[in-house]
Specification:
The chain is of the alpha/beta class. It contains nine helices and ten strands.
């Protein structure tokens, strides 16, 4: 459902993303992890059409983002880490606007159901500017799911959510995959990633440093009992050492 092939994004001589490839199949939840500056946000922006890659391709449900972007965008829902929601609209008005914009069949009924699922019915007619941060995050999920997308791309989904809201979002993402969809998420919550993802791709310095299920990642670090936090610390430390050695490795021998 999601295919990224040899993705490169350069800013001058610096590569924010350097040759990344990944595929997310129907039924999978995949966590894209890495320290700050690893290239995760750049990857997400390229996948959602917010920036144009220097090279490489992004395909969503068979539609190339560069050549068939409108069709590709119809197939995914996106929850950004810093969503913009029109503050002078109510939650209900926002979903009505998006339903008309996307020409969603039965948008009114679907909006009511989503507002109920995310416990926003009581605030549906209040202006978005009066919503708490957690309420805005839940409304963002309503907006992303309104057109019933096959693919969910979620950047830091748990920000601002209380424990119950965070649990509900985890269940929603798992259910979306179990019903035949695909989910790609980035998160700094390694506990969430470990409990939810079918497999993990770890980035550092714009490149892939490791990928696999928890069992596969444990074998890579040689610790059958390691949790994802310990694996993350070990592999990112190894990546930092490798990055420090790379410039020297490229120098010609004297």
């Amino acid at each position: 459902m999601i295919s990224v092939e040899r993705l490169v994004k350069r800013y001058g001589r610096a590569a924010a993303v350097d040759g990344l490839s990944l595929q997310v199949a129907a039924g999978e939840v995949v966590a894209l992890l890495g320290p700050n500056g690893a290239g995760k946000s750049t990857t997400i922006k390229a996948m959602t059409g917010l920036l144009r890659p220097t090279s490489g391709t992004v395909t969503i449900c068979g539609h190339d983002m560069a050549t068939d972007g409108v069709a590709a965008k119809r197939r995914f829902g996106f929850v950004p880490d810093r969503p913009y929601l029109y503050p002078k609209l109510s939650g209900r008005e926002l979903l009505r606007f998006l339903g008309r914009l996307r020409k969603v069949p039965g948008a009114e009924a679907r909006s009511r159901a989503l507002l109920a699922d995310f416990e926003l019915t009581g605030a549906a007619d209040a202006l978005v500017e009066t919503y708490s941060h957690g309420m805005r995050q839940r409304l963002t999920f309503c907006a992303a799911l309104l057109h019933a997308p096959e693919v969910l791309i979620v950047d830091e989904p748990m920000v601002g959510l209380d424990p119950r809201g965070a649990r509900d979002v985890r269940l929603l993402m798992r259910r979306h995959a179990d019903e035949g969809g695909a989910v790609l998420l980035t998160t700094h919550s390694l506990e969430v990633a470990e409990s939810l993802a079918d497999w993990v791709l770890l980035m550092a310095g714009g490149r892939e440093r490791a990928r696999g299920t928890m069992a596969e990642l444990r074998r890579q670090v040689g610790d059958d009992g390691a949790n994802l936090e310990a694996i993350f610390m070990e592999l990112t430390r190894s990546a930092e050492v490798a990055a420090a050695l790379e410039p020297a490795a490229r120098e010609p021998a004297p």
